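Re: duplicated header lines in exported C-alpha cells

Our pipeline writes sequence and C-alpha cells for each protein into one text file. With two proteins the header for the second block appears twice in some exports. Here is an export where it did not happen, for reference. First protein block:
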Amino acid sequence: MRIVATVRIALRALRRNKMRSLLTMLGIIIGVASVISAVSLTTGATKQVESQVQSLGESVLTVFSGNQTTGGARGGWGSAPTLTVDDALAISKVPNAVAVSPEVRDRAQVLANGLNWNTQVIGEGPDYPQIRNWRIASGAMFTDQDVRGLTKTAVIGKTVVDQLFPNENPVGQTLRVRNIPFTIVGVLGAKGFNLFGQDQDDVVVIPYSSHMRRITSRTYVSSILVQAANDKVIDQVQQGITETLSARHRSREPDFTVRNQLELMQAVTETSKSMGFLLSGVAAVSLFVGGIGIMNIMLVSVTERTREIGIRMAVGARAADIVVQFLMEAVTLSAIGGMIGIGSGIGFSMLISVWKHTPAVTPVEWVVAAFVSSGFIGVVFGFYPAWKASKLDPIDALRYE
C-alpha cells in the first residue's frame, strides 16, 4: 500500500506543473521514439532482404565457370567454358548434395498467341524448382526423361504468362523460342523481384540439354546449382565440390569458383548488427540527454518543495521515505515518457511504412528494452536529487521561504 500511496503522491506532484513535466519528458519521448521507429524500419527492411535471399533458394551453392583473358582484358568468373554436364554429374555424387542442376542462360525473343516478348531463357535440370524453393503453380516440371530426350518442353514464369497469355491457361499451348516450338508443361508460382532488382518471374525454363543442342549449340554450361542437405553441411558440400572439380580439371589454378547463399545471408546479418550497434549508440545519447533533463527538474523541484520536505520530516518521515518519494517521481516521469515514446515511434514507423511502401516490424524485445531503459534512466538520474532532499535539515527546511 505504501508503494501505491507513493505513486499517487508522485502523480499529484507532476500534475501541479503539467507543462514543465511534459517538457521534461520530451527528451525521453524523442529519444525512445527515434530509436523505436528506426529499429522498426531497419528490422522490416532486413526481413525483406532476408526473404529475398531465401527466395533464391535455401542451402544453395552456385558453381561458376572460370574466367578468360582476351587481349589483356580479363572477362571475370563465368566468361570461360570450363564447366560441363559431366562436372554436374560428378558433383551430384558429393555427400550431402541433395539436388544438382546444370544451368545455361541466354536471352531470346519468344512468340506465342500472336504476341512476342524478350525474356530470359534458361536451361535447367528437373531439380531446379526444388533448389530454388519455387513451387509449380499449374502443370508440372519437365522430367529426367525430357532432359535425356532433348524434348521441346518449357515451364514459364508469371510475367511471361501475363505478357503472352493474358487471361488464358498457357499449359499445353505452344511457345516459340528462336522459331523452335516448345510445349508449355507448367507455370512457376509468382516470386517477384529478387535482391538485385531482377524480375524472377520473367523467365522461360527448358531442359538444359534442349537449350545446349537446339538453342545455343553449346558444349559447356554457364554454372551449376547445388542444394546442400542443410545449412550445417553447406561448408562440407562446398569443400567436396572444390575437391571434385579440382581433381577433374587438373589445372594449375582453379578454373571455377563456388559461392553459397549463406555468405549473402551472413552479409545481410552483419549489416543488421552494425545498424543495431549504431542505433544503440543513438539511443544511449538520447536517453542520457533526457536523463540530464530529469535530474535538472528534480533538483529544481527539491528546492521549490524544501518547506514541504521539512514538514514531512517533522511529522515522522524518515530519510528513506523522502528518497523513495522523489525517486518515484523521477521514475514515473521517465516511464510515462518512455511509454509515449514507444507509442509515437511505432506510429511514426507505420506512417513511413505506408508512405514509402516499405515493411516496418517492431521487435518486442526492443519495446521492452526501451521501457526498462527509460525507467532505469529515472532511477539513475533521479537518485541524486532524492538523496539531496533526504539530507535536508528539518529545522532549516521549515524556516525556508
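Second protein block, exported in the same file:
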Amino acid sequence: MSTSDSNSQSCNHEQPARVANGWMGLVFNISLYLAVIFLIFGAKGSSLAVLLPLGVGLLLVAVTVSCGFFTLQPNEGVVLILFGAYKGTVRDSGFFLTNPFNKRIKISLRTRNFNSEKIKVNEKRGNPIEIAAVVVWRVQDSAQACFDVDNYENYVRVQSESAVRHVASNYAYDDGEPDEITLRGGSDDVSAALTRELQVRLAKAGVRVEEARLTHLAYAPEIAQAMLRRQQAEAVISARQKIVHGAVSMVEMALNELSAKKVVHLDEERKAAMVSNLLVVLCGEGEAHPVINTGTLYN
C-alpha cells in the first residue's frame, strides 16, 4: 500500500449523526417510570412473582434511557462514539436523546482567538527580531479535530508559532529592495501569507483560520539601539537630500529670474559666489548672519 493511500485512509471526515428529539424521548422515559411504579407497587398475590421482576427490568431500561439525554447550545457540537466507532456529529442546538452507550465528546464550534507569545527569530537578512501574532480560528470538521490529531488546541498553538517563525524568516524587517514586501511596511501582505501558511498547517486538524495578524514587531534588545541609530542616520540623510534638492532648485530659480528680468549681469565668477552664499543660507542649520561688502568682488 502506498503512502498516499495510507494517509487518505487515516483522514476522518465529519458526518451527521442520527439522534431523537429529546422531548419525545422524555415523554417515553416518564412513561417507563410510571409503568415501573405500577408494576412494582401494584403487584399483589400470585402476580407478584411475575410483575416484580418485570418492573425491575423496566426500571433498568428507564435508568439506561435517562443516560442518553443531552443538550447543545448554539455553535456547539457533540461527537458520538459507540464502542470505538465514530457514529457522527450533532451540530444543531436543542434537547436530544441518543444511544445511552454512545460516548459523547462535546466540542466548541465558536470562533476563538490565539495570542502567540513574543518569540525571537532571525528575519530574512539575519537580524534578530521579536514577533508575535493573533490567530482567529474555529473548528470546521469535528471528526478531524478529535481523531486526526492528539490535542487540536495544543496543535493550533504549536503550529501557529511555527508558522510565525517561518513567515518572519521570509521577509526583511524594513528597508528592503525596491518593491520588496517587508514585515514593517507590508503588514497586509504578510498577514495574508501568514493566514495561508496556517491554513495549510491546520487543515489536517479540521481547523479553519479566519484571520492572522502580527501584534508585535520589534528588533531584539541586543541590536535595538544600533538599529535605532541607523534609522536616525537614514532619516537625517533623507532629510538632507530633500533640503539640498530644494536649495538647488531655489538657487536655479533665482539665477533664472535675475537673468530674465535683467536685474543684474553676473559673470561666471559672480554666479559661483552667489550660488555658494545661497546654498550656505538655505542648507545651514543655524541662522545666517549677513556680511556687508563695502568693496567689490575683485578687491
